[in-house]
Design a protein that fits this description.
Chain lengths: ~500, ~500
């Protein structure tokens, strides 16, 4: 059966739903009478097309068909999922839900994007209330996986399961909310922060930027990977969650909370939290959780370093400070030996089903070494920006030994030959602790004009740097395996 | 001058400070009379040593010298920075600060890790109050960059600047808080969420795990890179921040806020927020901010995919679902031709700075084709589980043409030769739309006993399947480039 979703109401949220369904192979019917609905949705779709597939390491289904319908009836009549994303006015939602239900199948799920209304409120006046539930997503809907799925007591369990399975199929994390409540779960937390933020601004304690920095340079980094409770579980250490709350609890009664209604931390509530935390995180020791947290923090910060954004911008500035503080080994290496062009270690993502580093990551490491060598001779980021670069045209790898998770790696690079348009490199990948040779990579690179798409001479300073290196490397012993071909 | 820091009070926070200073080349004196202080600090240090340097792309300074002191006096007398991290009791803090000030230099900065007390409270009874300020860090202190630097009116501006510059030098983001306030900035926001979370648990709306998931699959991903206000600025779109608050504002008066004191959204407050937001983010258009946000979201989620954690675990499961949805390879192909062992397209993560697929992803695709060929001949996941597999020992790649984002890819695989312990494969990577050959990969694989770590004969059904394929493939034309070696 053809999968068809109907999105009633475009805009940023509706458009995000359109993108999620469409890019997962569903046909999508849109009804939105606003004159700029098509433009808005196409903008969201463009954003989604460039980013959502980047989360997958496998092929996505072929995109579904997008149809802008002239009437709500046309949009919903054949749909298995109908998503309502109209403005947050209950009278308007009632009117639109009524129209949807007079034209849609009784088996269709009707999800509402509402952040404020409870499903029982949406269901008022409906003759088939169990079909309506809250499916509250988060912007950008095409990337952020969370969707709060809130049924009322009138929604049959199998409809909730069906809804959950459809949301899962379009790549979402459907969090089924046990009991309906105003603003569901996440927006209650967000509102709490928003209220506190408004006070800080009003009283001139902090600006919007300072509040944002207090989040993204601090607990925001933790919350991208673990939430509030798992983070505190770690902070509590081996003494456990109940102990931690015992220490932390009194702060709730401190002066700044005097305007707030605070739950009393009875023994019963403390035990409930500790038990739930055990069920949630008890399979990992605190030491394990610390390492998971730290590795994620490093990764999350490094992503932003690559993007030169936020905490990453700061890390780049810090590298600059460190560089001034510490003479870098690579800035003036000993040219009479192969050059150290990579130092790192085997990352968790590089481990394959055999339990050791996957073959393609051997080349990845050598490719980084090639990039570093390019930077070393002056063919750096700015050079590539200027329209010139080196392309690898031929590679020969010999896999000599296996290497496991977290082992240090080092690449030594020898310049085998060069001309104005070529360079011939030989990388030796070692495990530096043991000196064991893990692999060799022989590479031929051509210098290209990126715009013309053909080879051209490298610029003079680069050729002269290559000549200097080669004047030392030509007399080095030729590495074993150089010029090999594969024979059976 | 030798840089010396004194850390009074070990524990998780004190230990984190020790690690930050030490790994940035400072000598560190520790005073903590607790019998397990050395063990605790060494555990924190071990965590820090494996993770903090991973943020840098340059060499870190040589580690400073760590000294556990028998007295507070010995610890602080030569220190330029003294960090107090003792338990949160004001009488205890006063006592320790008094002892510190009777032995330390007048020019030293005394930072307190307190999350609850204002600097003016810490300074009570002090004869040199301007030396004391709050330097409130976040766990893990060695990784999370935020530190709230809170001076009182008694702290001279040049001391605050000096403190900020030292904190910056150890890789921290020092957020100077303009006006002292209970719990500073970040902990006020955290307390607000904590209170709301306690209510949700107490009233059985959600468990600790569900609250954590509502954070880390949702807004936590946004807050690692942008805070509350920048995120909302984007949600508001081109209409701007004031417009957004106008829409969002009424929700503050909704029923769930009735127990809370809410600032009144006067025109003046709205304008103040909008102006601050312009100063903060106005240099980027909304469209730019959307793309920055999306790229960061993808990166932050992919980090966790590599770690198989949180949102990343979900993404891996989703890849599995997509694989089942989209047919990957033909299970009964025509043996008289090279076999189609990969069909996919160029993923965004594979694009390098030259704007086309990175060289290592050519091998990644061929490696997947090799895996698929192994599955096809029966050397599948279960076979590897049973302790046998094929390892690639040699690879020769010829890069023939470039390929750009989203272009479809196809690998055709020819069996060049085989024996009981070997197979020799030749992959041709095409762009199927145009028939253009993008690259070739020649691979020699050995059959290994994973436990013994040496070669052995493949099992009979596998050798017989290889023989069947070879009976067709041996008469195919030998592919161009077979047996090549690299020559300059």
């Amino acid at each position: 059966m053809k999968k068809i979703a109907a999105c009633i109401g475009g805009g940023v949220i509706g458009g995000g739903w359109v993108a999620r369904f469409l890019l997962h192979g569903w046909d999508v019917n849109v009804f939105d009478p606003a004159p700029d609905a098509q433009r808005k949705i196409s903008e969201v779709l463009n954003n989604a097309r460039r980013s959502l597939p980047a989360l997958a390491d496998v092929a996505m289904p072929e995109e579904g068909k997008l149809v802008f319908c002239d009437s709500l009836e046309l949009a919903v009549s054949d749909a298995q999922w109908i998503q309502e994303s109209v403005p947050e006015r209950l009278d308007l939602k009632h009117k639109i839900l009524g129209q949807i239900q007079s034209h849609c199948s009784d088996n269709a799920i009707i999800g509402s994007s509402t952040s404020g209304f409870k499903p029982s409120e949406l269901q008022e006046h409906s003759t088939n209330p169990g079909q309506i539930m809250v499916a509250h997503p988060f912007n950008p809907v095409y990337l952020v996986p969370l969707v709060e799925l809130v049924p009322s007591v009138k929604c049959p369990a199998q409809s909730v399961e069906k809804a959950q399975s459809i949301l899962t199929a379009i790549g979402m994390k459907a969090l089924v909310v046990r009991k309906e409540i105003d603003a569901h779960i996440a927006d209650r937390l967000l509102e709490a922060v928003w209220r506190e933020g408004l006070w800080l601004i009003k009283d001139d304690i902090a600006t919007t930027e300072e509040i944002d920095d207090a989040i993204r340079f601090g607990f925001g980094l933790r919350w991208a990977q673990m939430g509030l409770f798992e983070t505190y579980r770690i902070a509590g250490g081996e003494a456990g969650m109940a102990h931690f709350i015992g220490q932390f609890g009194p702060a709730l009664a401190w002066p700044w909370t005097k305007l707030m209604d605070v739950p009393k931390l009875t023994d019963e509530l403390v035990q409930k939290i500790a038990d739930q935390s055990d069920r949630q995180s008890g399979k990992h020791s605190i030491r394990e959780l610390e390492r998971i947290r730290d590795d994620n923090l490093v990764g999350i910060m490094r992503v932003q370093k690559d993007a030169n954004w936020g905490v990453g911008e700061m890390l780049r500035e810090h590298d600059q400070r460190l560089t001034e503080l510490v003479p870098q080994i690579d800035s003036a290496p000993d040219l009479s030996q192969p050059l150290t062009m990579y130092q790192g270690k085997v990352l968790p993502a590089w481990i394959d089903y055999n339990g050791h580093m996957n073959e393609s990551n051997y080349l990845q490491v050598m490719s980084i070494a090639t990039d570093n060598f390019m930077t070393f001779i002056g063919a750096d980021g700015a050079y590539v920006e200027s329209g010139k670069s080196y392309f690898t045209v031929e590679t020969h790898i010999c896999h000599i030994d296996e290497v496991k998770l977290n082992k240090p790696l080092e690449v030594k690079t020898q310049l085998i030959g060069h001309s104005e348009k070529k360079m011939h490199l030989f990388h030796s990948l070692y495990q530096p602790e043991t000196g064991v040779l893990l692999a060799t990579g022989e590479h031929m690179l051509l210098h290209v004009d990126l715009e013309a798409g053909k080879t051209c001479n490298a610029e003079k300073p680069i050729n002269s740097k290559l000549a200097t290196i080669f004047s030392h490397h030509y007399s080095l012993e030729k590495p074993k395996g150089l010029g090999r071909s594969i024979g059976c």
